[in-house]
Design a protein that fits this description.
two-stranded antiparallel ribbon; elongated; 2 domains; two-stranded antiparallel sheet
């Protein structure tokens, strides 16, 4: 370290410029050789000279006029190179733009921290070395996914900061900001699950369907697995039950993560019961998977609905407001007992808007009452999923999972009232 500190900073920056320009030049040469392109404007040495030129001109003149002139001269020479190359069948701006980026290595080494220079060079090397992977990914990426990503940026980076953090109305003790924050968090979980499910597990097992579907919607995953179980029969009961239990396990993990974002005090009180449920569920899944059964692949013909439709976000926001109104009315009229009854009823619908409205609003209830409501809502939702599994599968393959879901409902009820 003392030896490194004794080296003048200018020398360190020059050595880094030369070394990184040389490395990128080697990779650039390999890229052209692998793709049978002819290097008309030079090779590795040319890249080093371009890097040194950028460094020297940037360092010589504090006004950076020399650096700007050098950039103009280099761009003119590359324009001539591009014009001559356009007469052949292989012409692209890729090589010329890459040379201009090498010219920037010197200034980056002088101004930016070392980690940014390394990151900059690594990105350049990856662009060169992973051409096939980048092309395959861009070919597989549907055009609608770009629009969907733009929607996510809009609802997260544009709409959310503009919303005021003030109550919507006296009977709605939730703010505009908290409503849209809930939409953003749930949409983010759903979008991540959708991307992994669509682009990494197109041919997926039942267990992965339960895992990813539980992050999106455990109820929807239960419906999908229940339909598949109907055609598989009772001989695949261990796989089917493990997948159904996995979907519900991911529901508890998702709820715990979302609740932690909104209210850490409530999340801390729910951590122990949720952890027990998650732990026992995982043990049951492992036991079921160790039993010898034929490996089943899931090929659901139904199209997965995209989770980031703006209409879906608006519906979720409206449900959030409706449940906030109901929660406020019930708590004012009937107190915590009314809230528990409402939670059990809501469990047979979509519990996410109810739980998030409960956490995002300023209701006259204690944290323990909120914990009870979350337990009852998730418990009755398990009862709904058990009914879906039995009704759709219509065989004994779901027996173990249904028994566990019913037991979770009873356990939630006993946890709250006893």
């Amino acid at each position: 370290m003392e030896i490194y500190n004794a080296i003048p900073p200018l020398l360190v920056q020059f050595i880094m410029t030369v070394a990184f320009s040389f490395v990128v030049g080697l990779e650039f040469r390999s890229y052209h050789q692998a793709n049978e392109y002819k290097l008309n404007f030079g090779s590795t040495r040319t890249f080093v000279l371009i890097g040194v030129l950028g460094f020297v001109l940037y360092t010589l003149d504090s006004s950076k006029q020399l650096f700007t002139v050098g950039l103009g001269v280099l761009a003119s020479l590359l324009l001539v190179f591009y014009w001559r190359l356009s007469d052949t069948k292989h012409f692209s701006l890729f090589s010329t733009i890459f040379a201009l980026l090498i010219y920037l290595i010197g200034p980056i080494a002088s101004v930016f921290p070392s980690w940014f220079l390394v990151l900059f060079v690594v990105v350049l090397i990856l662009i060169l070395s992973e051409k096939t992977l980048i092309h395959r990914f861009s070919d597989q990426l549907a055009n609608e996914e770009i629009a969907t990503l733009a929607k996510f940026f809009i609802i997260s980076g544009v709409i959310l900061p503009l919303l005021p953090d003030q109550p919507i109305a006296p009977m709605l003790p939730v703010t505009y900001y908290r409503v849209w924050l809930a939409v953003l968090i749930v949409s983010g979980f759903s979008y991540l699950s959708y991307l992994v499910n669509t682009y990494f597990f197109k041919s997926r097992s039942l267990l992965i369907t339960g895992f990813l579907g539980g992050l999106y919607s455990s109820t929807a995953a239960t419906v999908v697995i229940g339909r598949q179980a109907n055609s598989l029969g009772s001989s695949f009961g261990h796989k089917v039950s493990a997948s159904l239990i996995m979907a519900t396990t991911m529901m508890y993990l998702r709820l715990l993560a979302i609740i932690f974002v909104f209210d850490r005090a409530v999340a801390q009180q729910l951590f122990i019961p949720f952890s027990i449920i998650i732990g026992i569920s995982l043990i049951i899944i492992v036991v079921l998977l160790t039993l010898k059964t034929q490996v089943t692949q899931f090929h659901e013909a139904g199209e997965v609905k995209h989770p980031l439709e703006l209409s879906t976000a608006i519906v979720f926001a409206l449900l959030f407001v409706v449940f906030a109104f109901l929660t406020n009315y019930v708590t004012q009229q009937f107190g915590s007992h009314g809230l528990k009854f409402l939670a059990m009823i809501v469990g047979f619908t979509d519990i996410d808007p109810f739980i998030l409205s409960l956490l995002g609003g300023k209701f006259t209830v204690t944290d323990s009452a909120i914990v009870s409501a979350v337990m009852l809502a998730s418990g009755s939702n398990n009862l709904l999923k058990a009914a879906y599994a039995v009704g759709l599968a219509r065989n004994r393959s779901v027996l173990i999972a249904v028994s566990w879901l019913v037991l979770l409902f009873l356990s939630s009820f006993l946890y709250v009232y006893f």
